[in-house]
Amino acid sequence: MLYRALRVVVRPTVLAIWRPDVVGADNVPAEGPVILASNHLSFADSVVIPLTAPRQVAFLAKDDYWTGTGVKGLINRSFFTAIGSIPVNRDDPRAAQNSLDLALEHLRGDGAFGIYPEGTRSRDGLLYRGRTGVAWLALTAGCPVVPVALTGTDQLQPVGSPLPKRVKFRVEFGAPIDFTGRFDDVPAGRARREATDEIMTAIQAMSGQEPAGRYNERKPELPA
Protein backbone atom coordinates (compact mmCIF):
# COMPACT_ATOMS: atom_id res chain seq x y z
CA MET A 1 0.00 0.00 0.00
CA LEU A 2 2.78 2.43 0.94
CA TYR A 3 4.72 1.51 -2.19
CA ARG A 4 1.67 2.17 -4.37
CA ALA A 5 1.27 5.58 -2.77
CA LEU A 6 4.94 6.29 -3.44
CA ARG A 7 4.60 5.39 -7.12
CA VAL A 8 1.37 7.33 -7.59
CA VAL A 9 2.21 10.48 -5.62
CA VAL A 10 5.89 10.84 -4.75
CA ARG A 11 7.49 9.45 -7.90
CA PRO A 12 5.72 11.76 -10.40
CA THR A 13 6.43 14.75 -8.16
CA VAL A 14 10.13 13.95 -7.85
CA LEU A 15 10.50 13.28 -11.58
CA ALA A 16 8.68 16.53 -12.42
CA ILE A 17 10.92 18.61 -10.15
CA TRP A 18 14.31 17.07 -10.93
CA ARG A 19 13.63 15.79 -14.48
CA PRO A 20 16.37 13.14 -14.39
CA ASP A 21 17.61 11.43 -17.53
CA VAL A 22 16.48 7.81 -17.19
CA VAL A 23 17.91 5.48 -19.81
CA GLY A 24 17.35 1.77 -20.40
CA ALA A 25 14.60 1.19 -17.84
CA ASP A 26 13.22 -1.53 -20.10
CA ASN A 27 16.41 -3.52 -19.41
CA VAL A 28 15.07 -4.32 -15.94
CA PRO A 29 13.08 -7.59 -16.08
CA ALA A 30 9.43 -6.97 -15.24
CA GLU A 31 9.32 -9.97 -12.90
CA GLY A 32 11.49 -12.58 -11.27
CA PRO A 33 14.64 -12.18 -9.19
CA VAL A 34 17.17 -9.62 -10.39
CA ILE A 35 20.08 -7.70 -8.90
CA LEU A 36 20.60 -4.04 -9.74
CA ALA A 37 24.32 -3.38 -9.22
CA SER A 38 25.20 0.31 -9.20
CA ASN A 39 28.08 2.70 -8.69
CA HIS A 40 27.64 4.75 -5.52
CA LEU A 41 28.06 8.52 -5.27
CA SER A 42 25.54 9.75 -2.72
CA PHE A 43 23.22 8.82 0.14
CA ALA A 44 20.44 9.75 -2.29
CA ASP A 45 21.31 6.84 -4.60
CA SER A 46 19.18 4.41 -2.58
CA VAL A 47 16.21 6.70 -3.17
CA VAL A 48 16.98 7.62 -6.78
CA ILE A 49 17.12 4.03 -8.04
CA PRO A 50 13.81 2.88 -6.50
CA LEU A 51 12.11 6.02 -7.82
CA THR A 52 13.38 5.61 -11.38
CA ALA A 53 13.31 1.81 -11.74
CA PRO A 54 10.21 0.31 -13.39
CA ARG A 55 9.62 -2.06 -10.46
CA GLN A 56 10.13 -2.08 -6.72
CA VAL A 57 13.80 -2.39 -5.76
CA ALA A 58 14.86 -3.24 -2.22
CA PHE A 59 18.05 -1.93 -0.64
CA LEU A 60 19.47 -2.68 2.77
CA ALA A 61 19.20 0.14 5.32
CA LYS A 62 20.28 0.43 8.93
CA ASP A 63 17.54 -0.66 11.30
CA ASP A 64 17.75 2.69 13.14
CA TYR A 65 15.38 4.05 10.50
CA TRP A 66 12.65 1.80 11.91
CA THR A 67 13.22 2.50 15.59
CA GLY A 68 13.17 6.30 15.74
CA THR A 69 10.52 8.17 17.69
CA GLY A 70 8.38 11.23 17.09
CA VAL A 71 7.50 12.72 13.74
CA LYS A 72 10.96 12.15 12.26
CA GLY A 73 10.86 8.51 13.31
CA LEU A 74 7.44 8.06 11.73
CA ILE A 75 8.56 9.71 8.49
CA ASN A 76 11.72 7.60 8.26
CA ARG A 77 9.89 4.38 9.07
CA SER A 78 7.12 5.07 6.55
CA PHE A 79 9.46 6.19 3.79
CA PHE A 80 11.98 3.36 4.01
CA THR A 81 9.16 0.84 4.26
CA ALA A 82 7.49 2.37 1.21
CA ILE A 83 10.58 2.09 -1.00
CA GLY A 84 11.04 -1.52 0.05
CA SER A 85 14.19 -1.16 2.17
CA ILE A 86 15.27 -4.15 4.23
CA PRO A 87 16.37 -3.34 7.81
CA VAL A 88 19.74 -4.70 8.92
CA ASN A 89 21.61 -4.40 12.21
CA ARG A 90 25.07 -3.15 11.26
CA ASP A 91 26.39 -3.52 14.80
CA ASP A 92 26.01 -7.28 14.61
CA PRO A 93 29.43 -9.00 14.24
CA ARG A 94 27.89 -11.08 11.44
CA ALA A 95 26.34 -8.04 9.74
CA ALA A 96 27.99 -8.65 6.35
CA GLN A 97 26.85 -12.26 6.05
CA ASN A 98 23.46 -11.50 7.56
CA SER A 99 23.01 -8.79 4.95
CA LEU A 100 23.78 -11.20 2.14
CA ASP A 101 21.40 -13.76 3.64
CA LEU A 102 18.60 -11.17 3.76
CA ALA A 103 19.30 -10.18 0.18
CA LEU A 104 19.28 -13.82 -0.93
CA GLU A 105 15.96 -14.40 0.81
CA HIS A 106 14.50 -11.40 -1.03
CA LEU A 107 15.76 -12.68 -4.39
CA ARG A 108 14.37 -16.14 -3.73
CA GLY A 109 11.01 -14.45 -3.28
CA ASP A 110 11.32 -13.13 -6.88
CA GLY A 111 12.26 -9.63 -5.70
CA ALA A 112 14.59 -7.04 -7.20
CA PHE A 113 17.54 -6.16 -4.99
CA GLY A 114 19.88 -3.18 -5.27
CA ILE A 115 23.52 -3.32 -4.22
CA TYR A 116 26.68 -1.22 -4.48
CA PRO A 117 29.62 -3.52 -5.27
CA GLU A 118 32.09 -0.77 -4.28
CA GLY A 119 30.80 -1.17 -0.73
CA THR A 120 30.53 2.50 0.12
CA ARG A 121 30.27 5.89 -1.56
CA SER A 122 33.06 7.16 -3.77
CA ARG A 123 34.18 10.48 -2.30
CA ASP A 124 36.47 11.36 -5.22
CA GLY A 125 34.36 10.26 -8.20
CA LEU A 126 36.56 7.26 -9.03
CA LEU A 127 35.01 3.85 -9.58
CA TYR A 128 36.44 1.48 -7.01
CA ARG A 129 37.02 -2.24 -7.39
CA GLY A 130 33.90 -4.31 -6.79
CA ARG A 131 33.65 -6.62 -3.81
CA THR A 132 32.44 -10.09 -4.65
CA GLY A 133 29.23 -10.21 -2.60
CA VAL A 134 27.27 -9.18 -5.69
CA ALA A 135 28.58 -12.18 -7.62
CA TRP A 136 27.92 -14.52 -4.69
CA LEU A 137 24.31 -13.38 -4.70
CA ALA A 138 23.91 -13.71 -8.46
CA LEU A 139 25.51 -17.14 -8.65
CA THR A 140 23.72 -18.46 -5.57
CA ALA A 141 20.30 -17.13 -6.55
CA GLY A 142 20.81 -17.94 -10.23
CA CYS A 143 19.52 -14.53 -11.29
CA PRO A 144 20.65 -11.87 -13.77
CA VAL A 145 22.46 -8.68 -12.83
CA VAL A 146 21.45 -5.33 -14.33
CA PRO A 147 24.40 -2.90 -14.14
CA VAL A 148 23.34 0.64 -13.20
CA ALA A 149 25.30 3.85 -13.73
CA LEU A 150 24.48 6.99 -11.77
CA THR A 151 25.82 10.36 -12.83
CA GLY A 152 25.36 13.63 -10.94
CA THR A 153 23.86 12.25 -7.74
CA ASP A 154 26.94 13.42 -5.85
CA GLN A 155 25.70 16.95 -6.54
CA LEU A 156 22.10 16.02 -5.81
CA GLN A 157 22.94 15.43 -2.18
CA PRO A 158 26.60 16.22 -1.43
CA VAL A 159 28.23 14.74 1.66
CA GLY A 160 27.02 16.69 4.69
CA SER A 161 23.97 18.15 2.96
CA PRO A 162 20.74 17.29 4.84
CA LEU A 163 18.45 18.00 1.88
CA PRO A 164 18.66 17.27 -1.85
CA LYS A 165 19.50 20.08 -4.27
CA ARG A 166 17.72 20.73 -7.55
CA VAL A 167 20.35 19.51 -10.01
CA LYS A 168 20.32 17.34 -13.11
CA PHE A 169 21.27 13.69 -12.72
CA ARG A 170 21.21 10.57 -14.87
CA VAL A 171 20.30 6.95 -14.24
CA GLU A 172 21.22 4.34 -16.84
CA PHE A 173 20.12 0.72 -16.61
CA GLY A 174 22.36 -1.54 -18.69
CA ALA A 175 21.65 -4.83 -20.43
CA PRO A 176 21.17 -7.75 -17.99
CA ILE A 177 24.17 -9.98 -17.43
CA ASP A 178 23.28 -13.67 -17.13
CA PHE A 179 25.90 -15.92 -15.55
CA THR A 180 23.86 -19.13 -15.89
CA GLY A 181 26.15 -22.05 -16.70
CA ARG A 182 29.17 -19.85 -17.36
CA PHE A 183 31.16 -20.76 -14.25
CA ASP A 184 30.10 -24.36 -13.66
CA ASP A 185 33.69 -25.63 -14.02
CA VAL A 186 35.43 -22.64 -12.44
CA PRO A 187 36.59 -22.57 -8.78
CA ALA A 188 34.11 -20.61 -6.67
CA GLY A 189 36.48 -17.83 -5.64
CA ARG A 190 37.66 -17.22 -9.19
CA ALA A 191 34.08 -17.32 -10.50
CA ARG A 192 33.00 -14.63 -8.03
CA ARG A 193 35.98 -12.45 -8.92
CA GLU A 194 35.50 -12.73 -12.68
CA ALA A 195 31.75 -12.15 -12.47
CA THR A 196 32.23 -9.10 -10.25
CA ASP A 197 34.87 -7.63 -12.58
CA GLU A 198 32.49 -8.08 -15.53
CA ILE A 199 29.75 -6.23 -13.67
CA MET A 200 32.10 -3.37 -12.76
CA THR A 201 33.34 -3.12 -16.36
CA ALA A 202 29.74 -2.73 -17.53
CA ILE A 203 29.09 -0.02 -14.94
CA GLN A 204 32.27 1.85 -15.91
CA ALA A 205 31.38 1.72 -19.62
CA MET A 206 28.16 3.60 -18.84
CA SER A 207 29.33 5.95 -16.08
CA GLY A 208 32.61 6.94 -17.73
CA GLN A 209 34.31 7.01 -14.33
CA GLU A 210 38.03 6.50 -14.03
CA PRO A 211 38.75 3.14 -12.38
CA ALA A 212 40.53 3.50 -9.04
CA GLY A 213 42.18 0.11 -9.38
CA ARG A 214 41.73 -0.61 -5.68
CA TYR A 215 39.06 -1.16 -3.06
CA ASN A 216 37.36 1.71 -1.29
CA GLU A 217 38.54 1.04 2.25
CA ARG A 218 35.93 3.13 4.05
CA LYS A 219 33.55 1.16 6.24
CA PRO A 220 31.17 -0.63 3.82
CA GLU A 221 27.56 0.54 3.78
CA LEU A 222 26.35 -2.59 2.02
CA PRO A 223 27.66 -6.12 1.87
CA ALA A 224 30.31 -6.80 -0.70
From TrEMBL:
<keyword id="KW-0808">Transferase</keyword>
<dbReference type="GO" id="GO:0016746">
    <property type="term" value="F:acyltransferase activity"/>
</dbReference>
<dbReference type="InterPro" id="IPR002123">
    <property type="entry name" value="Plipid/glycerol_acylTrfase"/>
</dbReference>
<feature type="domain" description="Phospholipid/glycerol acyltransferase">
    <location>
        <begin position="34"/>
        <end position="153"/>
    </location>
</feature>
<dbReference type="Pfam" id="PF01553">
    <property type="entry name" value="Acyltransferase"/>
</dbReference>
<protein>
    <submittedName>
        <fullName>1-acyl-sn-glycerol-3-phosphate acyltransferase</fullName>
    </submittedName>
</protein>
<keyword id="KW-0012">Acyltransferase</keyword>
